[in-house]
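Open question from group meeting: does this chain pack into something compact, or does most of it stay loose? Before anyone orders reagents, we agreed to write out a predicted structure and look at it together. Recording both the input and the output here so the notebook holds the full record.
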Amino acid sequence: MTQRPTPPIAPKQPQPIEQLGRTRTDDYAWMKDEAWQKVLRDPAALRADIADHLKAENTYTEAMLAGTKDLQAALFAEMKGRIKEDDSSVPAPDGPWDYYVRYQEGAQHPIRARRPRGGEIGEEILLDEEALAKGKAYFQVGGAGHSPDHRLYAWAADEQGSEYYTIRIRDLVTGEDLPHAIESAYGDFTFSPDSQWLFWIWRDENARPAKVFRRPVRGGEDVLVYEEKDEGMFLGVGTTSDDAYVAIHVGDQETTEIWIIPAAEPTVDPACVQPRETGVRYELDHWSDRWVIRTNADGAVDFKLCVSTEPLPSRATWRDFVPHQPGRYITGFAAYAGHLVRMERVNALDQMAVMTRDGAEHVVAFDEEAYALHLEGGLEYDTTLTRFVYQSPTTPRQWFDYDMASRQRTWRKTQEIPSGHDADAYVARRLYARAADGEEVPITLLMRRDTPLDGSAPLMLYGYGSYGHAMEPSFSIRNLSLVDRGWIWATAHIRGGSDKGWGWFMDGRKAKKTNTFTDFIACAEHLVAENYATKGKIAAYGGSAGGMLMGAVANMRPDLWGAIIAAVPFVDVLNTMSDASLPLTPPEWPEWGNPLTDAEAYDAIVAYSPYDQVGAKAYPPILATGGLSDPRVTYWEPAKWVARLREHTTAEAPILLKINMEAGHGGASGRFDFLKEIALDYAFAVWAIDKGWTK
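Structure tokens returned:
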């Protein structure tokens, strides 16, 4: 009989922490390298003892899952086989050119290109990402785009996963890159409408966006345009749809503020539209002769649209255009010369409404029980065409051009599945679980039509539930590999997301955060009650803040799960929210509360923080993953959590850790390498359920 590998035992180095009259002890605080800022930029700088421990964890995980290598390879091959390797996007017209992205067969990264409008020949390569990525362990392009005069192309590249980007500008006439690349940048930038300036965002030593600069595209000194003094705010920059203004967006999870610069005077100081007011969010666009503002002001929980005709549209000038309607969450809008497209979500389903300038509107309808709809829009303003993408758990992505005047849909492309896909072989369903307080929590299911519904099928329950991000019922080339093996895939649309409106988000944050966890548990229990699942044969899956969800439900109901996969999990919530030097801590106090100054926030967080709530329980098999250069969820969070779980679990089920030593929050950067990480997650789930560790 093969001997089971021995897991690494992390040494305990108790560190008492006094905070707001409360004391806690962190035995594994040593795993955080005090020079973490340097590690973000240079992973090789990681302290030797920490590096040795993480490598030992990786070796242990590899040994434990050695028997799944063939399954991992098969899963990867299946997923890759569903990708059209030489795929290309539907061209987006802009002036004399059609812009598009395409992949060459075998390439991990795309080529960005253009060709004369309406033609099939005359391609001009703008950026060959595959060539730039060659020889690099990590390479990811953030923002990328051409100047309005079509003579320049700029892109932001991250070569280590730390989200510190370098921005370069290429002269498309000469093919040469302009000198003096921009370092320590955010991935967000924009050309001024006159193509003479590049507005970009600088990241400080703590990886936070802090300043907006304006640079002459042909060379010259950077000029400070805006500096944000509140380290809790994120920054963004862009132009309005009609190219009349440059806009600087400032905000966190609950409050926003926008500054504008007239495009005709790009060197003037920005003007504040409406000073920030805690709890009030707004975004705006210029619609030829008026501003359109999306806001939750005046109690519009699910948002409304307002208009203003003033050059500086302060809140006093806003008048309702699309009034607030509870339960109809306005998620966004897009402006065109003669039309406005409004995106909405009602009961976890998207819909699209098209308005004319006089307010007349029509809704674009869809028939499936569960689907996802995205407005892709376009690059042109003076047009009657917009573009949307439709998909469902059974239906691959479909691209349509929609004539807003004639209401005619023109099919442009369907996602091709080279290995084949029979949509009729699958079924998607929408169920509703009743939470403890009576709320109905939607669940989207995907299964094969021949899957037995007697509780015998293993089930993957996926959840997130934070920051207002909705889990849309989309098509996945990855999930089919489990479903084809007889699994049921379930997505829980829990509170903390905006699946049922902004109030659904508000009811799952701060002091109400536990609703997120109890909703997820209610979904699992409902699936068991309806014979879609059996307790102990459910694999729970979530990443980032969804990884925190995994940690919380592992503590609250370890008996429900046959496996838990926590990808880059935010599990050390109290310590992270108490460290103001970390990149995302001040910006996320509105989401979680500030335990440095607020005793109620401290007590609320410590009551659910997965790391702090680990106890003597029979934990199921757990796989935690992380990235060494991750600035969002630092590597030491999953590492500390795994060490503490191993120390306290009363079960024999394995607790595994896999740290990508060459990537950040998003994992591997290549489109195929990323699938290998997903294949590992799924193979772990299959292995854990088959082993029956929780029986």
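Observations to bring back to the group:
DSSP finds 13 helices and 37 strands in the chain.
The mean pLDDT is 95.
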